[in-house]
């Protein structure tokens, strides 16, 4: 059985109805990135930032995991601890599909963090817009990503690395394919169009078609 590391980005949730970040209908359309996705933006205007994330959090109640999320949960059920899922997404669709071995490296929309103490609280509804004690538990630009040590360990042991629905524009996730490759893994990308990163194989097409096909191929081989 191979050790598999899967990295997902917003493209895997697009067919569930959630916006990706970059592109014409991107999530940040109408907002400057520095206003809603940086600690400086939150310090300057917490009302705007809470309103932005409250709207995203509400949207989560309206969407469901798709065939790609379910296929990855099925792969984990077959491989157990030999599969690790690293997601850049802050939605909870992998968890709702049944994946459990997850590093949510950019945080989670359904968790808020106390700014003074660091305490985490599960939170599925609106935060009062004027609240300045609690912030979304998401990783903004310039902040340290979550669980990087675990990810580094998993990449070092990987036989197969698969990146799904990510543009590869954001550091440090855009380094993972090269790290896995250097450790001896085969690298595969699934995307509507190839990103600018180097992979051994590129599977072009929607995640809801390509991910179940890849998982079926892996399970047939193992
Ligand atoms: C489909 C599909 C379908 C569509 N099927 N595919 C210069 C200045 C300042 C900082 C930097 C700098 N240069 C580099 C940096 C570092 C910075 C960075 O990378 N910036 C670049 C953008 C320039 N990175 C950071 O700051 C990170 N932290 C860090 O480096 O810390 C260092 C540190 C160390 C020690 C102490 C302190 C610090 C943190 C990055 C945090 C990113 N956070 C965000 C926002 C989260 C909150 C929110 O939701 O608002 O995370 S940014 C945003 O981008 C989000 C995503 O997770 C991330 C990646 O985007 P993703 O998922 O790839 O989406 P898209 O839209 O780009 O791509 C979608 C893809 O899907 C496309 O390819 C489509 O084709 C595809 N697709 N439909 C298959 N159906």
TrEMBL record:
- Tagged with keyword Ribosomal protein: no
Q: Where is the Deacetylase sirtuin-type domain?
A: 1-221
Pfam families assigned: SIR2
Q: Which GO terms describe its molecular function?
A: NAD-dependent protein lysine deacetylase activity
Query: What are the UniProt keywords, alphabetically?
Result: Acyltransferase, NAD, Transferase
Write down what this protein is called. Answer: protein acetyllysine N-acetyltransferase
Q: Does the keyword Cytoplasm apply?
A: no
Q: What is its EC number?
A: 2.3.1.286
> In terms of domain of life, where is this protein from?
Bacteria
List the PROSITE patterns: SIRTUIN
